[in-house]
Amino acid sequence: MAILQAWFMDDIPNDPQLPHQLNPNQSVSPAYLSDLGVLNWKLNPDKYEDDQELDKIRADRGYNYMDLLDLCPEKVENYEQKLKNFYTEHIHADEEIRYCLEGSGYFDIRDKDDRWIRIWIKAGDLIILPAGIYHRFTLDTSNYIKLMRLFVGEPVWTAYNRPQEEHPARRNYMINFGQKIGTPLEAH
């Protein structure tokens, strides 16, 4: 199966639903995403209701809540405003877990140097963004995505818009993933 596609973004302020790749493109490896705390799996979206690998991920990580979300102009009230809200840079106090069942969209995350990385999720991609990572979401030009949302316990969908440097989730993220590569650690 195909690997998750990700790249550093350009800073051209036009339609956020366009790919925004640099010229030439600068791909981002799964290992680099992992260094930022981003986890991902490629699953079979046609068998999500009876997928042993998905069940194992959910059990191992304690994801006991699940719902489905169709995001497109025909099915979401105030669609344009919702997309604007999703595209505002923010963090969450908990992981953000999304499994793309149909369609496609973009998660943008900040790296350790505060550069935007665009992650293109398509059918079969399960992505986990760690609590406290700055991110945003938008659809691509297909204008449709069907997502499974997973959560530990009762879902809390609160977004904390940037800046949030003192938020406990952000501080924890910086401790776990925020060290710049090659930055020496102080001796204790």
Automatic annotation (TrEMBL):
It is a peripheral membrane protein. Its EC number is 1.13.11.54, 1.13.11.53. One of its GO terms (biological process) is L-methionine salvage from methylthioadenosine. Binds either 1 Fe or Ni cation per monomer. Iron-binding promotes an acireductone dioxygenase reaction producing 2-keto-4-methylthiobutyrate, while nickel-binding promotes an acireductone dioxygenase reaction producing 3-(methylsulfanyl)propanoate. One of its GO terms (cellular component) is cytoplasm. The keyword Metal-binding applies. It catalyses: 1,2-dihydroxy-5-(methylsulfanyl)pent-1-en-3-one + O2 = 3-(methylsulfanyl)propanoate + CO + formate + 2 H(+); 1,2-dihydroxy-5-(methylsulfanyl)pent-1-en-3-one + O2 = 4-methylsulfanyl-2-oxobutanoate + formate + 2 H(+). InterPro entries: ARD (IPR004313), ARD_euk (IPR027496), RmlC-like_jellyroll (IPR014710), RmlC_Cupin_sf (IPR011051). It is an enzyme of class 1 (oxidoreductase). It is found in: Cell membrane; Cytoplasm; Nucleus. Gene3D superfamilies: Jelly Rolls (2.60.120.10). It comes from the Eukaryota. Keywords: Amino-acid biosynthesis, Cytoplasm, Dioxygenase, Iron, Metal-binding, Methionine biosynthesis, Nickel, Nucleus, Oxidoreductase. The keyword Phosphoprotein does not apply. Its cofactor is Fe(2+); Ni(2+). Catalyzes 2 different reactions between oxygen and the acireductone 1,2-dihydroxy-3-keto-5-methylthiopentene (DHK-MTPene) depending upon the metal bound in the active site. Fe-containing acireductone dioxygenase (Fe-ARD) produces formate and 2-keto-4-methylthiobutyrate (KMTB), the alpha-ketoacid precursor of methionine in the methionine recycle pathway. Ni-containing acireductone dioxygenase (Ni-ARD) produces methylthiopropionate, carbon monoxide and formate, and does not lie on the methionine recycle pathway. Belongs to the acireductone dioxygenase (ARD) family. This is Acireductone dioxygenase. It comes from Ambrosia artemisiifolia.
